[in-house]
Amino acid sequence: MENLKINGDRLWASLMELARIGATPKGGVCRLALSDLDRQARDLFVGWCKEAGCAVSVDRMGNIFARLAGRNNALPPVMTGSHIDSQPTGGRFDGAYGVLAGLEVVRTLNDFAYETEAPIEVAVWTNEEGSRFPPPMIGSGVFAGVFALDDGLGRADLDGKTIGGELKRIGYDGPQAVGGRPVGAYFEAHIEQGPILEAEEKTIGVVTGAQGQRWYEVTVTGQEAHAGPTPMRRRKDALVGAARMIETVNRIGLAHQPYACATVGFAQVSPNSRNVIPGKVFFTVDFRHPQDDVLTAMDKELRDACARVAEGAGLALDMKEFWYYPPTPFDGDCVAAVRDGTGRFGYAAMDIVSGAGHDAVYMARVAPTGMVFVPCKDGISHNEIEDAKPEDLAAGCNVLLHAMLRRAHGS
Ligand code: HGY
Ligand code: MN
Ligand code: MN
Fold first, then answer.
1. Which residues belong to CATH 3.30.70.360 in the chain?
2. Which phi-psi region, left, alpha or beta, contains residue 81 (left: φ > 0; alpha: ψ -120 to 50)?
3. Per CATH, which fold does 8-211+327-408 belong to?
4. Contact between residue 352 and residue 330 where contact means Cβ atoms under 8 Å apart
5. pLDDT for 239-271, tens place per residue?
6. What are the beta bridge partners of residue 82?
7. pTM score, whole prediction
8. Average pLDDT over residues 24-32
9. What is the 3-class SS of 162-217, one letter each residue?
10. Which residues in the chain are classed under CATH 3.40.630.10?
11. Ligand 1: which of 82, 86, 382 to mutate, judged by most atoms within 8 Å of the beta carbon?
12. Are 371 and 208 in contact (CB under 8 A)?
């Protein structure tokens, strides 16, 4: 086990080949969940896994599992994986790295003819990003029992197309039951998507857990009217009200530093015509914090402030909490396995809490779970310029390999 090392060039080549599917002019990817491009990427991955001697299965949420047999296949699998759906202006590494690092682990075990005690599985989770089909992490969420299957299949995009319908259309409406089976341990490799590892000059982030998230859908309703004859004081301008609320979102985030994050990433104005006073505005709120009590305090501040703005401007306010998960600590032994893997290679490492959500957050509900982070250039992600160093990606994959072997080999 000591001298097993992954093949960094092969990992990089696979990443670059996958990145060609949905490649954008600025060097990123647009591979929305369950699009034809997602199907192409899935097909490429499945082909590679079969070449590597894996048995491939797909469950009813379209989650893909590539399984490399171990000596004792009655044991629960040691699983790794991530996602291959991307943001509309996503990067080449977000998600894809974790999936292909898992494949590289399998390829490396084959290279060394190294047979683990427990079977190994590499997972591709459906709709991690939650961009086309909000909320995020629905595939792993159904697997972990967070969402019911029908709820997951019924989630729709802005055109009313459902996950269930799109899975059928691309041929990934698998027969396998979703979840309800034991998983020995789950590890996920991912770029940090923030600036800390690079700033601290660390190669590996030993992820101790993930911060909590709370998402809202807000509808502000005023009155459409003519932009010309309507006096300023008689207006019920939904966009002015929403703008004040969005400023409040930002103020609440700033008020809970150093950790709080507060984002309005999506907004729709109706009727969105230059000379009509907006009658309705829909926008989303994304709150995050590593402490649940602070997330709760931010929730109250948001609701109180928005109610005050609406009342003061004669607007109607509808605010729905759309998605929530609490700060999630990872399993102590899995975190230790990642730390041990890091130590084996002498990589510079530090503990870190994940600012982003990952499928690992939901897998932590059904299996001992850990994550391995590597730096990304300037901490930028969810952006086409997202970049990472081949040597860091290889280092993270070596740590993933050894953390998994510690659980799969039982040593
Ligand atoms: O939003 C997130 O944290 C993740 O990228 N889905
Ligand atoms: Mn991701
Ligand atoms: Mn992402």
1. 212-325
2. left
3. Aminopeptidase (3.40.630)
4. no
5. 999 999 999 999 999 999 999 999 999 999 999
6. 124
7. 0.95
8. 97
9. EHHHHHHHHCCCCCECCCCCCCCEEEEEEECCCCHHHHCCCCEEEEEEECEEEEEE
10. 8-211+327-408
11. 382
12. no
Q: Is the CB of 309 under 6 A from ligand 1?
A: no
Determine the residue of 32, 85, 94, 129 to mutate for testing ligand 1's pocket, defined as the one with the most ligand atoms within 8 A of the Cβ atom. Answer: 129
Give the helix/strand (H/E) hosting 99: helix 96-111
Task: State the Cα–Cα distance between residues 340 and 335, nearest whole angstrom.
Answer: 9
CATH number of 212-325: 3.30.70.360
Nearest ligand to the CA atom of 381: 3
CA dihedral angle for residue 19, residue 23, residue 29, residue 30, rounded to 10 degrees: -130
Q: What is the DSSP string of 290-329?
A: S-HHHHHHHHHHHHHHHHHHHHHHT-EEEEEEEEEE--EE
Q: CA–CA separation, 83 vs 98, rounded Å?
A: 7
Measured between alpha carbons, how far is 264 from 269 in angstroms, rounded to an integer?
Answer: 14
Condensed to tens digits (0 to 9), the pLDDT of residues 310-334 reads: 999 999 999 999 999 999 999 999 9
Using CA atoms, how far residue 314 sits from 212, 233, 236, 317, 394, in Å, is 33, 11, 6, 10, 57
Angle at 192 between CA 48 and CA 125, to 5 degrees: 40
Residue 82 CA to residue 298 CA, distance in Å, equals: 30
Which ligand is closest to the CA of 128, given by its number?
Answer: 1
| Ligand sitting nearest the alpha carbon of 213 | 1
